[in-house]
Hints:
Layout: H1 2-30, H2 37-44, H3 48-54, H4 58-62, H5 66-78, H6 86-101, H7 107-114, H8 117-141, H9 149-167, H10 171-189
Amino acid sequence: MTVQSGRxxxxxxxxxxxxxxxxxxxxxxxxxxxxxxxxxxAEADVAVTTLFSHFASKEALxxxxxxxxxxxLARAVTGRxxxxxxxxxxxxxxxxxxxxxxxxxxxxxWRMIDGSPALRKYExxxxxxxxxxxxxxxxxxxxxxxxxTACRTIARFAIDAHSLAREAADPEAAVDEIFLMIEAAWAxxxx
Length: 191
C-alpha cells in the first residue's frame, strides 16, 4: 500500500510542478495579466478544478514555493544544532533563500512581480504570514507560550532582510549588513 501512496504523491507533485512551470512560462511569454487560469489549465492539459486543487489562486502559481519557504524558515529555528545561536541560523537560511531568488533566470520573474499590483499585494500578505510563522517558531524555541514583541520584530526583520537583499546590488553583502543590525537588536530585545 505504501508504494501506491508514494506513487500517488509523486504523480500529484509532478502535476503540481507541471502546472506551475506552465503558468510561469505563459506569464513570462504573454504577461501576467494577459494569461487566465483557463489558459494555464489548457496549456498544462489539466482541468481548472485540478489546477485549483493545487493552487488557491492565480497569484499562488507565481509563488509556488511559498510553503517551502515558510517551512525552511521555521526549520532554521527549530532544526538548528543544539547551542547554535538563533540569529546566525536565520542568517544562513535567509542567505540561501536570497541566493535562490537572485540566481540566473530569476530577474524576469521579479520584474513581473514588481510590475503587477496583484502580485506585489500577494507577496506582502505572504511575507506577513511568513513573519507570523517565524515569530511563533522563535517563541516556541524560547519556551514562550506565544510570540512576544521581540519575537515578532526579529521575525519581521528577517523576512524583510530577504526582500531588501534581493533588491540590492550585492545581495550577499546586504544580508551581512542587515544581519549585523538584527543581531544587535536581538541582543538588546531578547526575552
